[in-house]
Amino acid sequence: MCKQRTAYERLKVEVERIGWRIQYRAKTISKREHSFCGLEQTTKECCFTERTDNKIMVEQLIDTLPPQGRAIIHKLYIQDQTESEVALQLNMSQQAVNKWKRKMISQLSRTVNS
Questions:
Q1: So what's the pLDDT on residue 76?
Q2: C-beta of residue 65 within 8 angstroms of C-beta of residue 107
Q3: Which of 2, 35, 99, 104 has the fewest beta carbons under 10 Å from its own?
């Protein structure tokens, strides 16, 4: 009887760990793929003109990217699509979309910081 209880407790702990890992992965993915459209909803305390200025600045920064990178960033962050959806639309691998995304974000970062 005692062994069954410990086996049950071990399984319960393992299931809780798996659930925690799944939630953690979902949170990290959602943080990485947060769209600009959802950003409006989280920053309601900002005034309208400040949000509009930020949107214009972001659009101008995205326009400085090469066409392929611009399309990928626009689809991922403005249209709120996943990497796999973008890969299917652009007929490329998800890994290639991920590389383009990282490359374009670093380019945008260098542009903003220079």
A1: 87
A2: yes
A3: 2
Amino acid, res. 87: A
Q: How confident is the prediction for the chain on average, in pLDDT?
A: 77
Q: Which two tokens stand for residue 10?
A: 């071990």
Contact 82, 71 (CB under 8 A): no
What pLDDT sits at residue 59? 82
Q: Can you give the pLDDT at residue 67? A: 92
Better-scored residue on pLDDT, 30 or 3: 30
What is the C-alpha separation between 8 and 23, in angstroms, rounded? 22
Distance CA 79, CA 72 (A): 10
pLDDT at residue 80 above 80?
A: yes
Phi, psi angle pair for 85, to nearest 5°: -65, -40
CA distance linking residue 69 with residue 63, whole number of Å: 10
The position carrying tokens 């380019």 is 107
Please state, in angstroms and rounded to a whole number, the distance separating the CA atoms of residues 18 and 22: 6
